[in-house]
Design goal:
With about 300 residues, the protein is an alpha/beta fold. It has helices at about 15-25, 35-55, 70-75, 90-100, 115-120, 155-165, 185-200, 205-215, 215-220, 225-235, 235-245, 255-265, 280-300, and strands at about 5-10, 30-35, 65, 80, 105-110, 130-135, 145-150, 170-175.
Length: about 300
């Protein structure tokens, strides 16, 4: 059965194939375009492998059609999700083209992680129907999607997107201003900035940072967000802590020197065998498997699974 809006996904890499999977599983017809023949050839198998990992039926794959041209993929779409590489010029060009190839009422969404949605839409015809949808990896396991309203985005474009994502079993939040990094990545990278600064200053090593997070406040995070936590301990105490400690936190405007040194030295992390720490191929694989098993476990326990009958 197929039902609901026709979805197009442009860029079928790590994120795009997972976004296509979410909508196919929710009963939508999905059209996929990727400029790479290898990506096009492998996308359905990658979705099948994800479904097998989840122990789910493979039949949603039949709702995904792979196309060799952008025009074919977007011409009949109600909603387009762009998940091409994080390059402003490339995305601007894609939105200029997609906004001419798709129908005038088609909603156009970018999966940019940090870039300005308004800048990406700068050359689009009618930027009022362009918005950000920042999915998290893997899109079929992480519920949250940040829906960003740029200055020109019409409120009804946001409403349509929020409603579509909810029906597909996701947990959309409305980001009311088009700020770099939106909400999730600003929070995440504020933590990383301080972590890198502590290691750079010799306060502790990289392994210790990870232990501190995983064995202390990280344990509370799934059930207690920072705003709830502040209210829980009391805002008077929070104010006192901030008066004392904030002047000591890293406030440099650019990346940490230690990060620049590692990158300049070719120490790029697991892919080169060394980053903040050294990694054998087996250790790196074990981290990936541990993460996936953890996320699959959560999804099986209480993850919202899209139901076909929820789709109009
Ligand atoms: N990887 C993540 O964890 C993550 C998380 C959230 C958001 N994002 C964002 O999602 C987007 C995609 O990231 P990814 O990790 O899936 O990248 P990726 O490199 O895995 O996939 C990008 C795909 O786009 C294709 N492509 C390149 N140029 C294209 C074009 N002109 N038209 C159509 N397809 C084209 C590539 O062949 C590739 O298959 C980026 O904007 C990224 O910042 C990534």
């Amino acid at each position: 059965m197929t039902a609901g809006e026709r979805i197009a996904v442009v860029g079928a890499g790590l994120m795009g194939h997972g976004i296509a999977q979410v909508f196919a599983c929710a009963g939508h017809p999905v059209d996929v375009f990727d400029e790479s023949p290898q990506a096009r050839a492998s996308v359905l198998d990658r979705v099948r492998a994800n479904l097998a990992l989840l122990g789910e039926d493979e039949s949603p794959v039949d709702r995904i059609a792979v196309h060799g041209s952008l025009e074919e993929a977007v011409e009949d779409a109600d909603v387009v999700f762009e998940a091409a590489p994080e390059d402003l010029t490339l995305k601007q060009e894609l939105f200029a083209r997609m906004s001419r190839l798709a129908a005038s009422e088609t909603v156009l969404a970018t999966n940019t992680s940090v870039m300005s949605v308004g800048a990406i839409a700068a050359r689009a015809r009618d930027p009022g129907r362009v918005l950000g949808t920042h999915w998290w990896n893997p899109p079929y396991l992480i519920p949250l999607v940040e829906v960003t309203q740029a200055e020109a985005t019409r409120p009804e474009t946001v409403e349509r997107m929020m409603e579509l994502l909810e029906r597909a079993g996701k947990s959309p939040i409305h980001v009311r201003k088009d700020v770099p990094g939106f909400v999730g990545n600003r929070l995440q990278h504020a933590l990383w900035r301080e972590a890198f600064a502590l290691v750079d200053a010799g306060v502790c090593d990289a392994e210790t940072i990870d232990r501190v997070v995983k064995e202390s406040f990280g344990l509370r995070l799934p059930v207690l967000g920072p705003m709830e936590n502040a209210d829980l301990i009391g805002l008077d105490l929070t104010l006192a802590v901030h008066e004392y400690v904030l002047p000591h936190l890293d406030r440099r405007p650019g990346p940490a020197p230690i990060l620049r040194r590692h990158v300049a030295g070719g120490r790029l992390g697991m892919k080169t065998g060394r980053g903040f720490r050294t990694w054998t191929a087996a250790e790196a694989q074990a981290v990936r498997e541990r993460l996936l098993a953890h996320l699959v476990g959560i999804a099986r326990k209480d993850g919202p699974r899209p139901k076909e009958e929820q789709v109009r």
